[in-house]
Amino acid sequence: MRYSRIVGTGGYLPEKVLTNHDLERMVDTSDEWIRSRTGITQRHIAADHEMASDLALHASRKAMEAAGIKAEEIDLIIVATTTPDMIFPSTACILQDKLGARDCPAFDVQAVCSGFIYALATADMFIRAGRCRNALVVGAEVYSRILDWSDRSTCVLFGDGAGAVVLSQSDQPGILSSHLHADGKHSKVLAVPGSICDGKVQGKPFLIMEGNTVFKFAVKILEEVVREALTENNLQASDIDWLIPHQANIRIIQSTAKKLGIPMEKVVVTVDKHGNTSAASIPLALDTAIRDGRIKSGQYVLLEGVGGGFTWGAVLLRW
Ligand code: ACO
Question: Which of 212, 250, 284, 306 to mutate to test the pocket of ligand 1 (most atoms within 8 A of CB)?
Answer without folding.
Answer: 212
